[in-house]
Please model this.
Amino acid sequence: MKRNEHDAPHPIRQSKNDRWVKIAAYAFVGLFGLICLYPLLLTVTVSFTPESVIASDGYRLIPREWTLDTYTYIFAHSGARILKSYGVTVLITAAGTLGAMLITCMISYAISLKEMRYRNVIAFICNFTSIFSAGLVPWYVVCVNWYHLRDSIFALIIPAMFSVWNMFLMRTYFSAISPSLYDAAKIDGAGHWTIFFRVALPLSKTALLTVGMMYALSYWNDWWHTLMFISDRNLYPLQYYLYSIVSNVNAISSGRVPSGAAASIRLPAETVKMAVTIITIGPIIFLYPFVQRYFVRGIMTGAVKE
Amino acid sequence: MENKKRGFIWEMKHNGTLYIMCVPALLLLLLFCYLPLGGMYMAFTKFNVVDGIFGSPFVGLQNFGYFFNGNPYAWNAIKNTLIINFWGLILGTALPITLAIFMNEMKNGLFKKVAQSAMFFPYFLSWVVVGAILYGFLTANFRVDRRSGELILTGANGVMNRLLLAFGQTPIRWYAEPKYWKPIVILLDVWKWAGYNSIIYMAAMAGFDGSLYEAATIDGASRWQQIIRLTLPMLKPNVVILVLMSIGRIFFGDMGMIWGLVGQNSTILDEVNVIDTYVYTSMRSMGFGFSTAIGLCQSVMGLIMILIANWAAKKINDGEGLF
Model:
């Protein structure tokens, strides 16, 4: 009742004001959402547009004609190459994610336990690497000269196998498990390995999914390690295959490449580039609706500092 | 209590398993983070592959001399890094906060859900994919007839050029015009991370005390006033942390971004060459010693910046630092 009296002097102006905030909110967020979605939709439709239509009309969201020719062409001409790259990508994503999860879970389980005396020392050893690093060149020289990672599939798996950020994320999840559950297992005579595999991991299925997705995404999207270490085309993952197509085109359209060279390099057609892009991010698009919330949860957990 | 008196050996005997669990991760850190620290010695040598890191001739500070005695490319790279990071910091803070606050004003429903999914999607794309998609916006195929001055389209034109044409403007050869690329790189960086960062702010806002807003409503405060007087001040600690984290990394460019978007296009590269890409290119052209020296300077500056940022965070947020 009191509230009505209070609102009475200027109820109309106020609600009008609030409505403008709401309109601004919907307009701004909607617009930005479109800016994020439009490029993707454009890429999809261009990959289904005939090359001749692109050449005459330019890039359009809704083309005059639709075709599957680009995909047929790609699979007829570079099908083997793309399949091979797909294989490499799937292999490094699967092997990398599995290994990374095991390594990350073990250390984060250990340092989530209060009874571990030097857990802060270990946390600091991890943290320090994100504060101070040797830089690209020493890392590269050590990888190539000492570990012989050049042109090895391991170069795409091992250096990215442990992320300190994901470790702290996982530790936050493990810390939330009640110690009494561990104690119960201990009374039954279980050691740390048993507790880790039988109690801690089964209790953190969502966390495993969240962090696993983060590793999988970083492996799937990785092309940088290929740029650094791989010159053997048979070891190119999808992302690097796409990179080699796109960066060639960029260099040529800048006009710096001598004209003779430009003539001899066959430009991949416009639609082919977009189709390869779609092939590269295909699984992400399909999985996105299902995995999105795990990422949101991961970011939120990571954002909350202890 | 008792635990404190017991020594290292007791700890290893009783919790040894836990330390064994840490070994693989620590081994990876040793191999890929700590041993390369030793490789920084290369900065003081005239490195050659045959003699290796510690066998190459020692040259003292010579490599640093090359760098500081006005190597224009190096200074250009430092300038570019700071400019790109500065604008990325300003826009990359303002946009996610705006998005988060506005998302908070919206009713839960399909529109909000779809908008959030759309905003978050760029985070899932690699820079190479973004580069490929960008091509669909910027590609240019036209020429101007010498005699008549008439514009002739010779092939596919991207979305940006079609827009320019629609408004009666001359299209632009984006990939041959360096001057547009700093803004392009900055805007794409902000675009890619906006959804991700807005989630961080929304997480913080979900923890705000709802009764404060109720009280404000009863006192007749409009939504706008509530945003200005309540939400923004309460977001401050999170903003401070994120901004200071960015300041701590202000000397580090995103090589993946620059290389994925610009790659081997040397016309544009000079305009957006950051320290990290400069180190990578000079590794081939100037030798490993020199490029290690630049990387060393970058790491030391980075360390100083992050310590300052951490100190500032503690000052502003009552003792809570960055790490």
In short: The two ends of chain B are 27 Å apart (CA to CA).
